[in-house]
């Protein structure tokens, strides 16, 4: 009992995972799996994303974000995809919304800002902010100035223009349009300015650096207005030490700002093992006073982060209540047609990757272990995943539905879906004789991969032909 008290419940389970986690080649749904825990909770989407900008447009939620999980730290990123949802629970994407930016280092896109009859977005590409434009929030977006192509280190299409030989410094654009139609932009290191009405150039005479209560490096600004009060949110630190602080103004988006006594609204929660809640944003449900905060969590170290959402609460004087952080998610924000999910009784896989101990970078109290059991593909939590062993060149995962029954549809959310997957889906009544019922023989970049089936089966088996050998979630209807 002394060990449990010293390490805490989650740390204790991490210890158990090291002893009992998926160490072998075969995953047969053994009793060992009863001990497996998911320390990552229910992330917003079944993928690694960070720096999320979320909004609702015409009844659909859009999430523009940095695509993480490409295993090269800050040297690269995944491609630009926009996750969409009708209910805030079931998310999907298909293809890329900014074609010319595919293959570039694509970070921290803003929300899609409606102006001049079009939509503008402001990602950081190869380390510089660029304005892009489209007729639809779905894209395709293209550079709003000059030729729609990128080259290193930067092109003349950047939002901020360089002076002499200096680079046009600045990342992490956040754009806000006030009630009078005046647009503003906020970016790294507490800078802010008016945007011109063309939405692609900055009023350089208005540039300021906001004097915040807390000094130090800052990025990932968020900005919104509620009941006549302007809120400016800025980050502090990074990695496990990420935090968000804020100021308020009743005068102007450019201040002056006042800083409440309790101005830190997100910080590490050791009791719940939530580390480094950082770069994200605030969104509101149109026509309501419901505000939500999306943030990345340090997760698996480096650029292997996931995004979570908690509701914002306010005091009567307009100050923000520090967030009661959880990794559970906020559930459905709009109703969607309900559909009966088939429960998976047990699962097997060709192999399971060995458990990974995630090492701290700035906080020695950060201790987390990830395991990769096949059961995680069916736990309805986007923070856990099944991964095949690295040496497994013919990976598969099988779902036992308990009895022969009608199966209408399969939806699979693969690991690293933005790089694409090819697969074969098979079904069986007895687990011995198998028939094909779905497939993608070529790489397809989407999530989830959906197959309409209308078959009778007790078992489904998915064989991965190309792409990362892992699944976040597999839903069967």
Automatic annotation (TrEMBL):
GO terms, molecular function: hydrolase activity, hydrolyzing O-glycosyl compounds
CDD domains: GH43_F5-8_typeC-like
Residues under site feature: Important for catalytic activity, responsible for pKa modulation of the active site Glu and correct orientation of both the proton donor and substrate: 172
Catalytic residues (UniProt): 51, 219
Keyword line: Glycosidase, Hydrolase
Residue ranges of every copy of the F5/8 type C domain listed in the record: 345-477
Pathway membership, UniProt: Glycan metabolism; L-arabinan degradation
InterPro entries per UniProt: FA58C, Galactose-bd-like_sf, GH43_arabinanases, Glyco_hydro_43, Glyco_hydro_beta-prop_sf
Pfam families: F5_F8_type_C (PF00754), Glyco_hydro_43 (PF04616)
GO biological-process terms attached to the record: carbohydrate metabolic process
Sequence similarity: Belongs to the glycosyl hydrolase 43 family.
Protein name per the record: F5/8 type C domain-containing protein
Source organism (scientific name): Chitinophaga rupis
């Amino acid at each position: 009992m002394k060990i449990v008290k010293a390490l805490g419940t989650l740390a204790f389970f991490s210890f158990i995972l090291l002893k009992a986690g998926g160490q072998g080649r075969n995953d047969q749904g053994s009793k060992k799996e009863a001990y497996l825990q998911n320390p990552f909770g229910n992330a917003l989407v079944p993928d690694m994303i960070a720096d999320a900008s979320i909004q609702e447009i015409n009844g659909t939620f859009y999430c523009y974000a940095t695509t993480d999980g490409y295993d090269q730290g800050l040297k690269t990123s995944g491609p630009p995809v926009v996750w969409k949802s009708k209910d805030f629970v079931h998310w999907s994407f298909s293809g890329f919304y900014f074609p010319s930016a595919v293959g570039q280092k694509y970070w921290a896109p803003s929300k899609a800002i409606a102006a001049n009859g079009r939509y503008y977005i402001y990602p950081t590409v190869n380390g510089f902010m660029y304005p892009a434009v489209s007729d639809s929030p779905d894209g395709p977006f293209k550079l709003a100035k000059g030729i729609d192509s990128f080259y290193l280190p930067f092109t003349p299409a950047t939002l901020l223009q360089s002076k002499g030989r200096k680079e046009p410094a600045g990342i992490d654009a956040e754009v806000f349009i006030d009630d009078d139609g005046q647009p503003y932009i906020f970016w790294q290191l507490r800078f802010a300015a008016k945007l011109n009405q063309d939405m692609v150039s900055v009023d350089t005479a208005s540039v300021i650096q906001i004097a915040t209560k807390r000094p130090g490096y800052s990025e990932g600004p968020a900005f919104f207005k509620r009941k006549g009060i302007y809120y400016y949110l800025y980050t502090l630190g990074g990695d496990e030490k990420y935090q968000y602080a804020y100021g308020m103004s009743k005068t102007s988006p450019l201040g002056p700002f006042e800083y409440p006594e309790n101005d830190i609204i997100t910080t590490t929660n050791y009791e719940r093992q939530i580390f480094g809640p950082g770069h994200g944003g605030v969104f509101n449900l149109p026509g309501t006073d419901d505000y939500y905060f999306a943030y990345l969590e340090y997760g698996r170290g480096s650029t292997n982060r996931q995004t979570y959402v908690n509701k914002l609460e306010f005091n009567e004087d307009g100050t923000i209540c520090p967030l009661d952080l959880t990794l559970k998610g906020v559930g459905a924000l709009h109703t969607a047609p309900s559909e009966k999910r088939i429960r998976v009784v047990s699962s097997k896989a060709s192999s399971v990757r060995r458990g990974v101990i995630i090492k701290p970078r700035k906080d020695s109290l950060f201790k987390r272990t990830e395991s990769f059991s096949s059961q995680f593909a069916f736990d309805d939590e986007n923070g856990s995943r099944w991964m095949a062993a690295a040496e497994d060149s013919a990976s598969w995962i099988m779902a036992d539905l308990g009895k022969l029954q009608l199966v209408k549809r399969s939806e699979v959310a693969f690991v690293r879906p933005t790089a694409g997957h090819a697969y074969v889906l098979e079904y069986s009544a007895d687990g011995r004789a198998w028939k094909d019922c779905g497939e993608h023989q070529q790489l397809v970049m989407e999530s989830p991969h959906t197959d309409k089936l209308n078959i009778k089966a007790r078992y489904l088996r998915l064989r991965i032909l190309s792409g990362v050998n892992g699944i976040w979630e597999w839903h069967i209807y």
